[in-house]
């Protein structure tokens, strides 16, 4: 088994998607690419290796690391999201509610802003406290956006979205999302938008009302100090996310041990990933914008170096 693998993502055409991801090495026959699932073990939407094999065919629990042993399946999902238009106003349930009522895990997630048009932003939580009756009425009459907290953003901004937080990515924003490995989403509002067949998209207001937090968003606090040359952006039971800013004057070394896999994605610039292979000597791999690499946990003591002029997002458990 190799020590590190380049992944090919699963791409999705969305009615709100744009064309920015083509500049990140993502190619599709569809006009719009809304999502690129980079590190995905989701059945039917798996990332693949260069030889076409799905990650679920190649990797097992021993490759995920000791910190992931308690999970029934791979705990993390990462993706690029290119929002040319607003995504639906939505909320995700907690594990407790989702396991009891949906038979799967809930979802906490975080966003790293990669690109943002001037004035573009995100809806994160409410702009004032309100009861659920008022919120339901605003959804029904189409005025719910007036209750949402709009955050104008710039590249490098980070938002952690705990389960239960009302949120939406607005038009003109490209983000890198790190989340629990769950596809469970409850739509509250979708701007009366219709799908390609002319039908209004399904809403899940009753379910959403049971799990949402109707107070003002209070962002979690993390220790964002330096850690093995990286900056911790966010963490929870299912993932820890770090940012590595690499310059031509300073390379970065990342180590892998039995505790967790390491996955890296290039969100800015380009460079080289190099490591020593006992059989082949020094090996080098190109790092281009949008590339994702996966290093299994069972390569105890494996270390690779990132050099060039780029920004890399690292994910582990």
What do these coordinates show?
The protein has 317 residues and is mostly beta strands. It folds into two domains: 5-211, Jelly Rolls (Sandwich), CATH 2.60.120; 226-316, Jelly Rolls (Sandwich). It has five helices and 20 strands. Strands 1, 13, 14, 15, 16, 17, 18, 19 and 20 form a nine-stranded antiparallel β-sheet that branches. A six-stranded antiparallel β-sheet has the order 2-3-4-11-6-9, with no helix packed on it. The longest helix has 10 residues, at 132-141.
The fraction of residues assigned to DSSP E strands is 35-45%
- Overall mean pLDDT stands at 94
Gyration radius from CA atoms, angstroms = 20 Å
- CATH homologous superfamily designation of the largest domain: Jelly Rolls
Number of helices: 5
How is the biggest beta sheet arranged?
A: 9 strands, antiparallel
What is the total number of structural domains? 2
* H-E order: EEEHHEEHEEHEEEEEHEEEEEEEE
Could you list some keywords that capture this structure?
317 residues, mainly beta, Jelly Rolls, nine-stranded antiparallel β-sheet, six-stranded antiparallel β-sheet, 20 strands, 39% strand, globular
Question: Could you provide a short overview of the structure?
Answer:
The protein is built from 5 helices and 20 strands.
